């Protein structure tokens, strides 16, 4: 593969990635092997587990999984197929009515919530059959700050992975927050273009006039400059309380923030599927899901403190409207970049000094891709 020859270590002198990184199936498949099979991926908030059954079917990278809780209360993730002849076990239809055990709808093999096969009708007379060889296939799953994460081949614990931003999860009390709203978008762009776009505000004066009034683009600074977690704070303008259409708080200010935290928005990217935007009064999550090399789904969740949500007249509409508009403005330019970069004649141009985090993302991506 012809790796981008223009890649440089310094942000100012670096060039963008070559078009093949957003247009080649070979690169996409390499990402599947080297990136999307061995990281911690945020897949759901704990509150999304069905309250009746402690269960949630999910799809990740075209693979069926389900999350559940065992009797000790630990969250576990399993492949969503029966070990007999592969029937899907958990779906939206039966999720709410599962009992303590998971019974396959086909021939009634039954598993407990630790994945152990506890019953398999008519299998006792098969000499070679052993229940202990036929439990559900488990995937590593851990909970942190109210988020549930999976990993197909963990090389480090989730806590080690998130250590660089553990203080921010604590300061914003992210574990206590709840989803007040969710929006899903389908974007005709490669996932990396969405990452790169989130990682710089060079485009803000052109693309986001409203955002640029609330947080002027030159007020961005980065305290995480290399590695899998990147980003930092951006100062709010004097007359803005938060990011919302009217610039006013959309929820109660999160208590315990320092004066500088309360006057800024922290924008963080967690490689390779999550953005975390910490506002003075709420937290915005972007979760990226690859569809194919030219398409990505983004799930956007607005998390507020339960005290805000319980308040009479709580209305996060100004924050939702603001980010929906900003997101759509971003998706449009990501889609334009996908088209232009897919042109075989495209040659990457130089980054400005306002794109140092994009260059840092590229470096980490290329190292991880191998
Ligand atoms: S496929 Fe599940 S019991 Fe047969
Ligand atoms: Fe943007």
Q: Quick one: biggest sheet? A: 6 strands, antiparallel
Spans of 5+ residues with little confidence (pLDDT < 50)?
1-10
Number of beta-strand segments: 15
Q: What ligands does this structure carry?
A: FE2/S2 (inorganic) cluster, fe (ii) ion
Shape from CA axes? globular
CATH topology of the largest domain: Naphthalene 1,2-dioxygenase Alpha Subunit, Chain A, domain 1
Total number of domains: 2
Distance between the termini: 11 Å
The strand line-up of the biggest sheet is 1-9-8-4-3-2
Question: CATH homologous superfamily of the largest domain?
Answer: Naphthalene 1,2-dioxygenase Alpha Subunit, Chain A, domain 1
Helix content: 25-40%
Tell me the structural class: alpha+beta
CATH class of the largest domain: Alpha Beta
Q: Mean of residue pLDDT?
A: 94
Strand content: 15-25%
Structural description of this entry:
Helices cover 26% and strands 25% of the residues. A six-stranded antiparallel sheet has the order 1-9-8-4-3-2, with no helix packed on it. It has a six-stranded antiparallel sheet with strand order 10-15-14-13-12-11. The chain has a three-stranded antiparallel sheet with strand order 5-6-7, with no helix packed on it. It has two domains: 224 residues, Naphthalene 1,2-dioxygenase Alpha Subunit, Chain A, domain 1, CATH 3.90.380.10; 111 residues, 3-layer Sandwich (Rieske Iron-sulfur Protein). The protein has twelve helices and 15 strands. The structure holds FE2/S2 (inorganic) cluster (FES) and fe (ii) ion (FE2).
């Amino acid at each position: 593969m012809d790796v981008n020859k223009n890649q440089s270590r310094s942000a100012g002198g670096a060039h963008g990635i070559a078009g093949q990184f957003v247009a080649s199936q070979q690169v996409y498949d390499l990402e599947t092997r080297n990136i999307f099979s061995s990281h911690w991926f945020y897949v759901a908030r704990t509150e999304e587990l069905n309250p009746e059954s402690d269960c949630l079917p999910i799809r990740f990278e075209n693979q069926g999984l389900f999350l559940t809780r065992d009797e000790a209360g630990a969250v576990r993730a399993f492949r969503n197929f029966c070990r007999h002849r592969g029937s899907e076990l958990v779906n939206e239809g039966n999720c709410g009515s599962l009992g303590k055990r998971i019974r396959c709808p086909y021939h009634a093999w039954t598993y407990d919530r630790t994945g152990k096969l506890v019953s398999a009708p008519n299998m006792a007379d098969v000499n070679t059959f052993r229940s202990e060889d036929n439990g559900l296939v488990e995937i590593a799953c851990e909970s942190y700050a109210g988020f549930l994460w999976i990993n197909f081949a963990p090389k480090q614990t989730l806590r080690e992975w998130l250590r660089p931003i553990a203080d921010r999860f604590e300061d914003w009390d992210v574990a206590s927050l709840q989803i007040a709203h969710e929006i899903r978008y389908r974007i005709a762009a490669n996932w990396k273009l969405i990452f790169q776009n989130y990682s710089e505000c060079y485009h803000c004066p052109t693309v986001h006039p409203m955002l640029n009034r609330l947080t002027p683009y030159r007020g961005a600074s980065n305290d995480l400059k290399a590695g899998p977690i990147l980003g930092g704070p951006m100062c709010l303008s004097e007359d803005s309380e938060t990011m919302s259409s009217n610039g006013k708080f959309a929820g109660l200010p999160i208590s315990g923030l320092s004066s500088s935290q309360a006057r800024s928005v922290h924008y963080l990217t967690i490689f390779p599927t999550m953005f975390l935007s910490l506002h003075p009064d709420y937290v915005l999550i972007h979760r990226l899901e690859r569809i194919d090399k030219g398409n990505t789904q983004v799930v956007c969740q607005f998390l507020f403190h339960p005290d805000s949500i319980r308040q009479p007249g709580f209305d996060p509409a100004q924050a939702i409207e603001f980010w929906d508009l900003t997101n759509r403005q971003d998706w449009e330019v990501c889609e334009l970049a996908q088209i232009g970069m897919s042109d075989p004649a495209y040659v990457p141009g130089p980054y400005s000094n306002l794109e140092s985090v994009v260059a840092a993302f590229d470096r980490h991506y290329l190292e991880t891709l191998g």
